[in-house]
Amino acid sequence: xxxxxxxxxxxxxxxxxxxxxxxxxxxxxxGSLSGTTVVLSPTGGAxxxxxxxGGGPGTRETDALDPRNLVQRVDAIVLTGGSAYGLDAASGVxxxxxxxxxxxxxxxxxxxxxxxxxxACLFDLGRGGDWRARPDSSTGRAAVEAxxxxxxxxxxxxxxxxxxxxxxxxxLKGGVGTASVRLRSGTTVAxxxxxxxxxxxxxxxxxxxxxxxxxAEPPLRPSPATHEAARRRLTEIRRRRGAGPFNTTIxxxxxxxxxxxxxxQKLAGTAxxxxxxxxxxxxxxxxxxxxxxxxTGRLPLPPEPTAALNGILAAGADALARAVVKAVRAARGVxxxxxxxxxxGDLYGTPDKDHGGAS
Length: 359
Fold this sequence. Notes:
Layout: E1 21-26, E2 35-40, E3 46-52, E4 59-60, E5 73-74, E6 76-80, H1 89-99, E7 104-105, E8 113-114, E9 119-121, H2 137-148, E10 168-169, E11 172-173, E12 175-182, E13 188-195, H3 224-241, E14 250-257, H4 261-278, E15 290-299, H5 306-330, E16 334-336, E17 339-341, H6 344-348
Parallel strand pairs: 6-9, 14-15
Antiparallel strand pairs: 1-2, 2-6, 3-5, 3-15, 4-9, 7-8, 10-11, 12-13, 13-14, 16-17
């Protein structure tokens, strides 16, 4: 990495943005392979925005984030499995926030608030074998409680956790990944992605993850023999499984910069560029690809903000592309009644033990 390249934050995670906390919860029981992830804003909330580009989204409260509308700040964002059924997880988060008086003040009495909890879901129904094993309000409450129990600046669990428990990335097991960028100005931009894509994250010619191309570090290149063995295994799994019907990659991009709601929406939109680098094809009719933005406002933009804002926009796309790579690398493979979904590590090994050959 050159001296001119922005460096990751200390944790290389969404929680490098001060005040942001993340919690995961899994649906329990035999035949379950789903869960929920909650991103909890600092007390007082954060400016929020959203950009939906997939053709089959499942969302809640996204209209409230339109810069033309009333709500200025939100206290939490919910990313969940369970398709549209799983959006019920947001009601558990909403109840938890109400109990603490967090939300839009709508009355003069104590606790008279309405928490606005935007949410997006991904399709993972039946991947553990039980079609009805999906998140509900109790899963959402467990995830927000897990987030609240963390200390500020805590690491974020990645891989097959929370909303990424049943996620699938093309033909590989997907999951949760997170990354951050610390700009020379001191501003932090970070992303958390739940990768459940209809498109592929893997270059079929080389076995390199698409999101590694163009990154500061050169891609890890599997040996030809390793890649050929992985290709044969994926072909056999594809023959037995058939095509997957629905997917969706959902993400949160956060920054400590003081953004307006319109600027936050622009960040959500340009962050999709990082998703397009890491997943091919993307934004299909069977995807519901959705990116939320949170801006905590700790650092003001300069009086002439264009250059600074451009840096933040570029960093959002970079962080999201790396978050996708980290999600796929951290995922654990699954072989069960709902299907066989090998992890990247199952096929190619870990970076330190099986990436020495040239293809």
